[in-house]
Design a protein that fits this description.
This protein is α/β, with parallel strands linked by helices. 42% of the residues lie in helices and 26% in strands.
């Protein structure tokens, strides 16, 4: 189970929102590159970026900050002899030219959210043009998908849409329970597992992580198809220590693999 720090960008700053409300933003850093370095030094192996202004405007609004983060990640990787540290970005991506530009800049994955729901043809084209690099972000409340920076609830069921997008060829699904995001009330395990069980591509959980118990709870169900969890307010406010939580997740993942290996051993009593 991978723990992925979230870096939410608003007006060039690193912030956290409460339940997607742009008026409830807490600024954590004025230097996005330094913020990225901080999480990498804490043991992060992947970063999750959100262009918050872009999500509301429908076009990229924090490209200088994104480029600063990519530069910091590359420098860290070279200094530490790491081959690749993937960086994924969502928010305001509505056309193929933007995707191509971001990938050329050095992003590993592009997350398409609102545009996937409103314009499935665009998502289909993106998955065809950039195979293996498109992730769909589904934000939901009570099983229904939300769009436009969470400001609108659609009538779409999460599972129905996720299956459709899986058929298009997206690499994975980032599933955010917007009733829990930024509230640190625990991940909606049941809904996340239900989604993961309905498809073959991996699910990345998001929204509600508070402490290491939430990480342990996710590790217990990771074999259902949950490969990672995005951590936001918890790591910024200190209720979750990223390094020790990732170490704990690695321990539990190793135990899970060992248990699998043991269960596949032939019974010693059998002839």
């Amino acid at each position: 189970m991978l723990l992925i720090p979230a870096i939410d960008l608003k007006d060039g700053h690193c912030v956290r929102l409460k339940q997607g409300d742009m008026d409830q933003a807490t600024v954590f850093s004025d230097d996005p590159g330094e913020m990225a370095r901080h999480w990498l030094m804490q043991g992060a192996r992947r970063l999750h970026l959100v262009d918050l202004n872009g999500a509301f405007a429908g076009k990229p609004k924090n490209e200088p900050a994104v480029k600063a983060i990519i530069k910091a990640v590359r420098e860290f990787a070279v200094l530490n002899g790491v081959e690749e540290i993937p960086v994924q970005l969502g928010g305001g991506i509505r056309d193929l030219d933007t995707i191509e530009r971001y990938l050329d800049d050095g992003l590993s994955y592009i997350i398409i959210g609102t545009a996937a729901v409103k314009n499935p043809g665009f998502l289909h084209d993106a998955c065809s043009a950039f195979p293996g690099q498109i992730i769909v972000g589904l934000d939901a409340k009570d099983g229904k998908v939300a769009t436009d920076g969470w400001s609108k609830l659609s009538g779409h069921e999460v599972i129905d849409l996720a299956k459709k997008f899986e058929d298009y060829g997206c690499a994975s699904i980032v599933y955010t329970d917007i009733g829990r995001d930024g509230m640190m009330g625990g991940v909606n395990i049941e809904a996340t597992v239900k989604l993961a069980q309905s498809m073959t591509i991996p699910v990345i959980a998001s929204g509600g992580v508070h402490n290491v118990k939430d990480v342990e709870a996710l590790c217990a169900v990771q074999d259902e198809g949950i490969e990672a969890v995005i951590c936001g307010r918890s790591i910024y406010e200190g209720t979750l220590d990223l390094r020790s939580a990732q170490e704990r997740a690695d321990e539990l993942s190793d135990e899970f693999v060992e248990d699998e290996d043991l269960s596949e051993q032939p019974d010693a009593d059998q002839p």
